[in-house]
Amino acid sequence: MSKLPSLKNLSYLLALHQHQNFNRAAQACHVSQSTLSSGIQNLEEQLECQLIERDHKSFLFTAMGEQVVEQARQIITSAEEMLHYAQSQGNQMEGPLRLGCIPTIGPFLLGKLSKRIQEKYPKLQLNIAEDTTANLLQALRNGELDVLILALPMDIQGNQQWVLGRDPFKLVMHKSLAATINEPVDYDQLPDRSIFLLEKEHCLTGHAVAACQLSDSSKINPFTATNLHSLVQMADARLGATFIPQMAIDQGILKDTDLVPLQPSGREASRDIGLVYRATTNRRQTFRKFAEEIADLLPENTLK
Amino acid sequence: MSKLPSLKNLSYLLALHQHQNFNRAAQACHVSQSTLSSGIQNLEEQLECQLIERDHKSFLFTAMGEQVVEQARQIITSAEEMLHYAQSQGNQMEGPLRLGCIPTIGPFLLGKLSKRIQEKYPKLQLNIAEDTTANLLQALRNGELDVLILALPMDIQGNQQWVLGRDPFKLVMHKSLAATINEPVDYDQLPDRSIFLLEKEHCLTGHAVAACQLSDSSKINPFTATNLHSLVQMADARLGATFIPQMAIDQGILKDTDLVPLQPSGREASRDIGLVYRATTNRRQTFRKFAEEIADLLPENTLK
DNA sequence: TACAACAATCGAATTAACCAATCAGGACGG
DNA sequence: CCGTCCTGATTGGTTAATTCGATTGTTGTA
User: Fold this and answer.
1) Chain A residues whose beta carbon lies within 8 Å of the beta carbon of residue B67
2) Cross-chain Cβ contact A83/B5 below 8 Å
3) Which of A72, A266, B152, B263 could cross-link B274 (Cys pair, CB 3.0–4.6 Å)?
């Protein structure tokens, strides 16, 4: 049996992959460039395969190198999790928890969530990042984040998820317009191009269109907004209607407007809110307790 | 950030956990007892927690120690998988594959399977263990086995599975008895205590009773057999009837007997055959290809 | 042509890993 | 009660591995 590679050398490899430069990677690891260089060579010998192609000036990770980086990342993350678990004496709700959240959920949930966590688990230190689903999944994969709050259904790749709750969509429009509309809303009652949506980077757009059975694309205005507050302002200016999730409404996004929420078409006009985490984690129990806290704050808790 | 524990020390811990004795563990690791002893102490310092309680004569793993062992096992298994993956240059179907299988499947599948694997993937070296479901799951958990072929449905704990195929049950009895019976068999046609089953350690018993809707337990003879061949012999001696899986019949278990297979009651009188593996593995692709080979050999391939 | 940037290599100094031998406590037997 | 055996811990010296600063060789650029 050949000797296992050392975690130290694996971490050198990760740093090199991240910085794409021996000097900067060495700095990040607090070692000299020569140490890191020989560490990598050492690793290549132990694994008996070439991880990076050198062309005298620079280098490139080989396909195998990339694969090894992937696996090394998982191993080191596991080791870190173990270290933290042991050092906190098994107290699961302690230490840093790096949370990623999409922008159509974050502003309407994270305030309440932080407060609740702070009260109930003061030793749990929540670090929050807000980004698109795709970027968050990448960060999760890279071990930069621990858990994500996403809207489902979604391709979460190799990760695992719990469905925390349902968040109904409402079709929001000016009260003067709403007076002429029957619920649940048949979109034929609306003029063409009268429905405004978010930029397509936001998964909310697709979820709303699918869940609310808005099949007639001529009703959609080609202008897209960058966030929910813009949508609300546009609707309040009587430009048209838009889909707003219940949790945003609960947080008062319609306050000081003349907008009213109507029930859209679709038997289940809602999105699911889920917690996504790496399949390889061993902090499932922490994440589970965390999931329960989140689910309690959602319009409809479906976490069993 | 504190220093990560070394894989070497973690492996010492695993050996100690396995052997429950410093000397034997040290031997297994090919190091001296003092090396292993200080390795463990080192680990405890790094993790800043007590892993074993010493009472001058012997020792005991603390609860935390047991937890750390669990996680260490996963980390080391991952590292071994990475090492092997790199050394085989990414060739997935190469090197050892440790397979566990239950005794009501093994004898009727593994012969054909070994032959097929040997032909198609000659570099894949199949190591086979046969045991009960519970023991196999324990071995999988301990990293002693890589994949299990089990009968489903089954509580596979934290592991993952693919359903490979269906294996119908047949009610087997002597042809003289069968002549008086209508298919699918209504058990009322059979005398009390005329159905023989395996010992309850075998999951086949429960699966057959459930799938074939044998609700009347008075039909079951309290004597239990240790393997399918015994059941066949007993049925052939006209002691009664028994459930035999199709794959055993296909492999000729009824040859040279006067037994005939009848269709039992139950809409889906069958068990599922599944491949079970650790959720934390990174050899999924290997296992998947392997799964396809197995599924091809089953009475009814349901692997999508 | 000189220079800056980069990764590899070298040699010395430091550190850690390791082992054999020994120690100390408890169990067992005579 | 004393000696022996078995346990894991400790010690001290040796060896092997790690690390660093300095240097080398190559490449691209001013």
Assistant:
1) 85-86, 90
2) yes
3) B152
